[in-house]
Amino acid sequence: MWRRESFRYLVFVSVAVVALVWGRATAFGDNSGSILKQLRNISVITSTVPANGDVNPYGIVEVKQTVGNLQRGHVLISNFNNMANQQGTGTTIMDVGPGGSLSTFAQIDATTLPGSCPGGVGLTTALTVLRSGWVIVGSLPTSDGTSGTAQAGCLLVLNNSGTVVETFSDPRINGPWDMTSIDSEDGAHLFVTNVLNGTVAASPAVVNQGTVLRIDLAASQAKMPKIESITEIGSGFSERTDPAALVIGPTGVGLSPGCAEEEEDDCALYVADSLNNRIAAILNPLRRRGSAGTGLTVSTGGSLNDPLGLTVAPNGHILVVNGNDGFITEITPRGKQLAKVLLDNTGGPPPGNGTLFGVTFDPLRGVLFVDDGSNTLNSLD
Fold first, then answer.
1. Residue 226 to residues 178, 179, 222, 233: CA-CA distances in angstroms?
2. Do 116 and 169 meet the contact criterion of CB atoms below 8 Å apart?
3. Which residue among 189, 219, 300, 319 is least crowded, i.e. fewest CB within 10 A of its CB?
4. How far apart are the first and last CA of the chain?
5. Whose CA is closest to 86, among 40, 146, 137?
6. Please, which residues bridge with residue 214 across strands?
7. How far apart are CA 266 and CA 284, in angstroms?
């Protein structure tokens, strides 16, 4: 389905921005300076709470191309909780303009979905925008905000006007938790972490059944995305239910730039392995026909403390936020932890516990991150 010449137009979207070639130093590699050490100011851009009162902003993605109601430079944010703060019940995707203007891009009604989504709607961190103007978001729904009622969910496909036009439901799509993508004019690869494989049945014990899927799509502005294949490229990741976080398992994902050129030796998918407190890498994610297990360990311990949201800066450094405190850590592709910054010092103990999730990087605006303690979109610049 993929024509090689199409890849010259490839772009990266979602929790991953442009990343560095796996395992080798270049001008933007391990010898370059730290990004976080150059950023000093934390600012609140806007509240993320819509008129219906949804809270807990999780997913964040920057729109790279104007198509319909999607405006280049705007940021989309998905909410996981409803106004009663019940997890797995949020139904809104918010649109934030460069100046901080807030509007509702979509409010999704579980009763009018055009296809199957086991359990309904509870929007997760899995959020991406294709260059053809399709928005894809994960749903891990509950009926009462507790893990005991969590169901498999699906991926919801919205058009550029914010209307759900189809659903991707499959036994392998089981609690889609985070996602990144790479796409061309006629297709896309989605990379989706899943955290409900045996998790609820084993609650509260840890099970090693978390997965990473590559979902290959045919898609264009004229035709809705269509699944061509689903491949499990990662498996055996630790996951468990959690009263505060609903579920903990493999979360943030980000791609290296070698993937854009289909260079197998230089292509890696980074994964935040939350329960094992490490950043993993799955090599050759575009062409892999089977699972790499839990991948290679890039970095572990140190400043990592339940790594959740993950993005990759233009110099190739991995930026990851912690679930157990309010810090963001910068890591080189070879695993060296260069710097950490406290993004949230409220609440706790410890300060910032449970407040950070989705994160992305904009060369002009710095680190953009959601804070689900204050229900805001913030920047570190």
1. 20, 17, 12, 20
2. yes
3. 300
4. 40
5. 146
6. 191, 231
7. 8
The secondary element (H helix, E strand) that includes residue 199 is helix 199-202
Rounded-to-integer distance, Cα 169 and Cα 155, Å: 7
- Give residue 300's identity as a one-letter amino acid code: T
The CB density around residue 365, as the number of other CB atoms within 10 Å, is 17
Distance CA 180, CA 48 (A): 21
Radius of gyration of the chain (CA): 18
CA distance 92 to 345: 27
Q: Which two tokens stand for residue 204?
A: 């509260």
List, for residues 34-89, the tens digit of each pLDDT value.
999 999 999 999 999 999 999 999 999 999 999 999 999 999 999 999 999 999 99
Going from the C-alpha of 57 to that of each of 94, 127, 282, 375, the distances in angstroms are 9, 11, 27, 6
What would the two tokens of residue 226 be?
């269509």
Residue 250: CA count within 13 A, CB half-sphere = 35
Q: Using CA atoms, how far apart are residues 51 and 70, in angstroms rounded to an integer? A: 20
pLDDT tens profile 200-232? 999 999 999 999 999 999 999 999 999 999 999
